[in-house]
Amino acid sequence: MQIEVLKSKIHRVKITEANLNYIGSITIDEDLMEAANIIENEKVHVLSVDSGERLQTYVIRGTRGSGMICMNGPAARRISVSDTVIIMSYAVMDFEEARKFKPVIIFPKEDNSL
To answer: What's the pLDDT at 23?
Structure first.
């Protein structure tokens, strides 16, 4: 049996930018991506602590050390600059493997740095 489990989580970062005219996605500082074990083009769920909005998109690599978290395309209408968000990705694995698996969870500082 295969199940889906939490793989990676960036807990409580601030949206720093929004780019409505981009084709879609979320841009994340490369330092945060690496620390959370998230790769470019990976599907993520983005949850706004402020509005309760929840959406799925994919990740684009942002400038390392910038603290950038940018909502792109239509998602920029649903989650706003300065919103606090939680970013999560999941993995599908065998049930027994999942029982032993430990997700990577990071807790960035208020300025989105590690």
So the answer is: 83
Domain count along the chain = 1
Which pLDDT score, from 0 to 100, does residue 113 have?
A: 98
The whole-model pTM stands at: 0.97
Q: pLDDT value at position 24?
A: 81
Which are the catalytic amino acids? 25, 58
* Longest CA–CA separation in the chain, Å: 44
CATH number where 85 lies: 2.40.40.20
> Is residue 62 domain-resident?
yes
Provide the domain limits for residue 85. Answer: 2-92
Closest by CA position to 114, among listed 44, 40, 31, 47: 31
Upper half-sphere CA count for residue 62 (Cβ side, 13 Å): 23
